[in-house]
Amino acid sequence: MAARKTDKSTKTTRNTTSSSSRRVKTIKIAVEDFILDHQSQNHSPQTLRWHTIALSHFLNYLEQEQDVTIIDQLETYHFRAWLVFLEKEVGPRGKVRATRTRRWYAQSVHAFGRWLYGERYIGEDFTERVKLPKLEKPLIRIIEFEEFEQLLDACAPPQEKSLTAERNAARNKAILWLLWDTGIRLNELCDFRLSNFDRQNGSIIVYGKGRKERRVALGRNALRMLLYYIDRWRYNSDDLQQLGIIDSGHVFLAETGQALTMHGIQMLFKRLRMRADIGDHRITPHIFRHTFAVRYLMLGGDIFSLQEMLGHEDISTVKNYMHLNDVNVQSQKRKFSPGDNVPFLAQSRLRNPGKRKVDAKKEKNV
């Protein structure tokens, strides 16, 4: 029994020592552990990038402005002071950061605080009582039908007739139709592979944030344009071998045969916008995502299926699109009005609700 007590005591001492070593860990090392934990959970590169940017800024602020480097020194005050500093600081682009950007930064630090508490590095979450920067209802722009038509017409460079130009035009149209019809994210578009295309059922398999898989059906137009590009214009394995490229299976390829990158598609959209002469309106893959969501709701789709197709975990994110669709919402209200669907009310009463009162007065006078 004594031996057991000794072992238990030794184990307790080790745990205490381990906890003690954790408490003196620097914030910099803790941030590295936090990022590593996200990587081990297969979170998206974009999520890792945002956490790295936000936490690096928070870390630099603590070191330079507050002289704080150890986890035990972290207090709620530091988080609030950093948010105030962030609001006034001029960013890399020469202007103060937008509220949405500051909120993203704050969300990363919030997640870091919860993680520190969950890992028992700290006894209390220093971010728990701090409210995030308040966002106004987002003003979401969508692409009009005329703009979409102009973009499709701009897929081929004017007055350029060549095999490469035709191949690029077919690819660009397939990209536009796929974004218009599915609302997938830019990184999901870049990662789209031939193995994720279900020809038989006319659908695609998309890997979203955290590599979560979802299936999205294609409409007839998008399916037709995608098949036209893949079967007739996309480089096949022999073509790529001649170019010295191993076929990675990515659907959308650059002229070199390499898979189109996020930067490559962003530059493509800039060229399309200039050719289409749309004006000052921004045209990006993410605006296509907004457009898909709003038009899906306008055509009678429900927010729950939309949430599934967009790959959002939180339904509140999808509800942001509802206020853009007020006309359709009011139309739906009239169509499914509970007040117009009361079975015990006779049709005659609905046609002339005041008639019964008039008849009652006549009977009383008689």
Structure description:
It is built from 17 helices and 3 strands. The protein is mainly alpha-helical and 366 residues long. It folds into 2 domains: 93 residues, DNA polymerase, domain 1, CATH 1.10.150; 184 residues, Intergrase catalytic core (hpI Integrase, Chain A, Orthogonal Bundle). The protein is globular. This is Tyrosine recombinase XerC. GO terms for molecular function: DNA binding. It comes from Dictyobacter vulcani.
Key descriptive features of the protein:
disordered N terminus, Tyrosine_recombinase_XerCD, Integrase-like_cat_sf, hpI Integrase, Chain A, about 375 residues, mainly alpha, three-stranded antiparallel β-sheet, Tyrosine recombinase XerC, DNA binding, DNA polymerase, domain 1, DNA recombination, 17 helices
